[in-house]
Amino acid sequence: MAHALKGRTAIVGIGTAGTGEAPGRTAIELLAEASLAAIADAGLKLADIDGLFAATSTHAFPTLSVAEYLGVKPRFFDGTNVGGSSFEMHLLQAALALDAGLCDAALICYGSNQRTAGGRLVSMSEPQWHETPFRPRHPITAYALAASRHMHQYGTTRAMLADVAVAARAWANLNPAAFARGPLSRDDVLASRMISDPLTTRDICLVTDGGGACVMVRANRARDLKHKPAYFLGGAGAQWHRSIAQMPDLTVTAASDSGPRAFAMAGLAQPDVDLVMLYDAFTINTILFLEDLGFCPKGEGGRFVADGAIAPSGRLAVNTNGGGLSCVHPGMYGMFLIIEAVTQLRGQAGERQLKKCDIALCHGNGGTLSSQVTALLGSDAAL
Q1: What superfamily would CATH give domain 9-118+209-232?
Q2: Tens digit of pLDDT for each residue in 303-322?
Q3: pTM of this structure
C-alpha cells in the first residue's frame, strides 16, 4: 500500500540558467537566475516562496546565502548537503514540509560555475586518513575501483561501459540544450584517453557551468497553476559510507536500500516506470544503479545496457537529456535529473519526448557512491 504522502505535493515550476558555459557569472548568479525562471514557470512570484532548500559546493551555509541573495525570508529551510543526491532528498523534505503546512511554496535550487571558474572534477573534503597515502585522484579513482571490481566479479567489459556513454550521446543528440553533441561510437570511447583504469575520458561526466531549480506546492494548489503537475509519489535515501575505502561491497550501492523503500512508498514497481533518470557521473554508475534499483539482476547491468538497450528506441528510456555524460554536469547533477523528468512528464521534451511518460524515477548519487536517494514522480495518470 502506498504511503499517505503519495501525490500530496507536486513540482509546478522548473528552470535552468547558463548550462554549459557561462563565462563571467558566479555560482549564485546562476542559481538565482534558474530560481527566478522556475518561479516564473510556475506562475508564481518571488514573494510567494516561503520554503527554501539549497545545497552548493561554494557556500558553507547555503540557505543563508541564497535567501539573502534572492531577498526572501523563508518560514522553512533546509541546507542538507549529501553531494549530488541532495536535491532528490530535498524533494522528500519539501514534500514533508508542505504537507505539514510548514510552508506553502518551496524552492529547491542549485548553481555552479565550475567550468569557467577553472574547476576540475574533484570531490570536496574527501576523507584523508584512509586514502591519501595511495595518492588517489578522487572522485575518479573511487569509481574506477568500483568498475574494476564489477568487471572482475561479473565479466562486465569496457565495451559495455562504452555503450552507456554511446546511449547518453544518442539522447543528447536529440536535445538542443545538451553541451556535448555529435557522433560517438563504442570504438571512440574505447580509444579515448585512459584516466583511471578502466575509465577513459568518455567514461567520465562533463565539467560544465549551470544553475537549476524547481518549485513545489501542495497538490490542491498545483492543479490550478500553469503546467501539468509532476506529483511526488515517493522517495527514500540511504548512505553506507563516505570514503570509498569503507564501502562494504564495491559492486553494491545503497541504492539497493533507497530504491525498494521509494517504490514501496509510491506503491509502484519497476515495470511501472516509463523513464529512468540516473546520476551518471561515470559509466559504471548507470550499470550499478540499474542493478541496485531492480531493473536487472546484480551482475547483469553490463549486459542489460549493451547494444543500445538504453538508447533511443531501446527497451528502457534512461537519461533522455543526455545525462551527466553528454548534457550537463556542473559539479552536483541531481537537480538536472528532476528537471528532465518533469519536462518528460509534461510532454515538453521535443524530439526526445517519450510516447508514454506517466512515471519517472530520479536517482541521485553523492560523494564516492556514498549517498543514494531515489524519488518517483508522476503525472495525473499515476495517481
Answers
A1: Thiolase/Chalcone synthase (3.40.47.10)
A2: 999 999 999 999 999 999 99
A3: 0.97
